[in-house]
Amino acid sequence: MYTMKKFNQVWLAAGLAASMALCGTAQAQMRIEISGVGSNQIPVAVAGFADEGIAPQQISAIIKADLERSGAFKLIDAGVITSMNNIDYAGWKAKGADALVIGTVAKATSGDYEVRYKLLDTVKQTELSQLGLSRAPQYTRLTAHTIADDIFLKLTGIRGAFSTRISYVKEYDKRHYELLVADADGEEEQMALRSNEPIISPSWSPDGTKVAYVSFEQKKPVVYIQNLITRARTVVANEKGSNSSPAWSPAGNKLAVSLSKDGHTQIYTVNADGSNLRRVSNSNGIDSEAQFSPDGSSIYFMSDRSGGPQIYRMGVDGSDPKRITFSGNYNISPRISADGKTLAYISRRDGNFQLYTLDLATGQEQRLSDSTDDQYPSFAPNGRYIMYATQAGGRKSLAVVSVDGRVKQRLTTQAGNIKEPTWGPFMQ
What we know:
This protein has 5 helices and 31 strands.
């Protein structure tokens, strides 16, 4: 049986403590529009959990929303099942469900909500998984996301990312900016920083407890790290000229940054406490937007050394730079998937800025967006989805697309433009 004890301890100590330590709770929540479905959808019936009405939020509804957003499942109406015993497997299979999700909710004397869940295989008439979770009322959504993650893993073989977090910037006007952290579905939005000057380029630390970003509050771009638990803030790079594009190393002990201290912008590495600044790239052009490879041995970056912006890769010490993108004459914002196999980037073609991916082994390129002004791609930690900023109808919003391009989501709010997204890591 899969136990969640260790997960709970780490998440509550890090991720949830972070959200409680932020400056405040933003009121406007995101609205999600979903289009397209994945190939070979798995038919799943998610029953209403027995007595779930006593909890602050309906757990089965959150699970359904998570599974629907993924595009990997075909949801089948199951009503409410009050007992987790004596399940009519054949009857559910006849209704078209290959899997059935059932559960119960009870309130403990401590005030926590105890949630039990089972995932059943109606074809083999066996139990695939079960969990027992006990959490405080404010973590009801996390409980539901955890169950959805377990369902996704057991039925697809891929780790779910529903319980991860995202960060982004919301711009209300030219004098009001907020750095926000939210659940992967845009709910439970928390404010990490408010400023009268622009905030750009947020980047999650590998352990999910800190966010690096660029702020213009000193009337120039400066790189900071914000500890989401302690709220302590560290200046990482405040050199002469521009300081931009922070990106964490996989070990979380250093960052790559883009600095113009020596003239034209080049890539440097710096320890997370701001010490040991070292220049890495060395060209006569502009080198920027560095991203470490998952194993930390190399850095992907944008450079115009060939006459126009293209994506390159070099050793972490700056050695052996090689061009990676060759299609199109304008490719920027490289992001690498967690398995190191897929590169996402923004390419300008026919005047449109759109999201593309490149299979690094085969060289096969794929366009994933059909809008005209896309920016700042960010992979989900399981590598199955990419979030990016886009613009339509004069409003800036976030979008999510599956790596096969079949499933698309648009995340919008009633107030403000949302941009500069970054998808947080799994909480180990």
